[in-house]
Amino acid sequence: MKRSLTMIYRRLRSKKAIKILKLLKNRDINNSSSNLIYQKSKLFVVLDTAFSNISFYKSMEGHCDLKNLTYSEFCKIPVLTKDMVRDNPDTLINKSYKKTNEVNKATSGGSTGEPLTFFRTNTQNIHGQAAYYYALELNKVDIFGKSIDLWGAERDMHSTSSSFNFKNFLNNRLTLNTFVMSDEIINRYINQINSTKPIFIKAYVHSVYDIAKYINKNNIKIKCKPIIHCTTGPLYPEMRYEISKAFNNTYVYNFYGSREVSAIASEIRESEGLFVFYDNIFLEILDENNNPVKKGEEGEIVITTLNNFYMPLIRYKIGDRAIKGDDLEFGTLKMDKVIGRTLGVIHKADGTKIDGQFFTTLFFSKPSIKSFQLVQKDINLLELNIVKNEPFNSDELKQVLNRIMTELPGINIEVNFCEKINLTKTGKIMYVYSEIKTTY
Description:
The protein has helices at 2-13, 15-25, 32-53, 55-58, 71-74, 82-87, 122-138, 166-170, 183-196, 205-217, 237-246, 356-364, 394-407, and strands at residues 103-107, 117-121, 147-151, 173-177, 200-204, 227-231, 252-258, 262-267, 274-276, 281-286, 298-305, 316-324, 334-341, 345-347, 353-355, 369-378, 381-388, 412-417, 432-434. By secondary structure, the chain is an alpha/beta fold. The strands form four sheets. The chain has an eleven-stranded mixed sheet, sandwiched between helices. α10 (205-217) links the parallel β5 (200-204) and β6 (227-231). The N and C termini lie far apart (51 Å).
């Protein structure tokens, strides 16, 4: 009965997204040649609109040959950085756009510094929602089935109360606020999971990871086997294992998106890597000189939105890094993995960088360390914030510190023991990041 009500509600409320979903389901996510042709046709329309109506791009008309849109022609368009968007917002807007009542102002989370203001359209939101539904379908999730959201952004929720929410009721969904977490709250949420028995859980990766560690540490039995959809951060192997184990060895997958561009890519069942939502965005992976990397190489993610004709972001450096997972020359339709924020690296004095995953691996394997945050204050100083697990084993921390100092000779590490790691305004944890300014 409840599922039928949700089906009726979604088909009325999300009619356009469901229609796009049906079109996507008729296509093969693995058919890269067909999907690239489809994607390029949408890219052409975005570029034609930008060159004709947006002042930032008008001067480029004629420099990029749209009639023969090769990748080398496309690369003549300059890469767009966050600072450029902040400094020139008016020049990036389509003043001829007619449906201004369908335009919404938004901001990015600001997890790497100053939040970014941008504009999204209803059309972009609808395609993003369709892509999200498509990810569920590809991972064999019933999109109308009973679900739980382990969520919690300051702007969205301000308490841990699970009071009745009519919209959640119609969506067959329970939302549990993970902005504030404690053992007491986690225990309450576990009871709610066991009483609700969802078939699907959508979660901030660090939230469900903390809950999973609590479940496994206390040998708690979970009375269901929900598919787990993780987002808002890299799903490291240690985290995937811990989460799957806690929920009866369930299937856990990673979904990648952002507020600026909505849905970007997702893992899918029985396949390796993350598949790009070619209907929603065009994606490139570039090296430090803005040249495309080859399959298996790491670089910065650069995105062009395909469904926003008011403020399209064209060749926009989103601030994340990834490893290219295909051999396409015109962009990328598959990533081996998303590495994380561009600032999720630690800089060495010789100019080289150590990826943040190296450090997270050191900490995730230490039972007496409940949570951590490593911040590079300057080239010779790291600040390490630690939340202890009881009983606390100081030798485990010494092992981590010694390993870090082996990789970073001469580094000073200030260790702070604290009650909790502060989240960003959108409820995320930045486990590893550098405050050293870099241009991107």
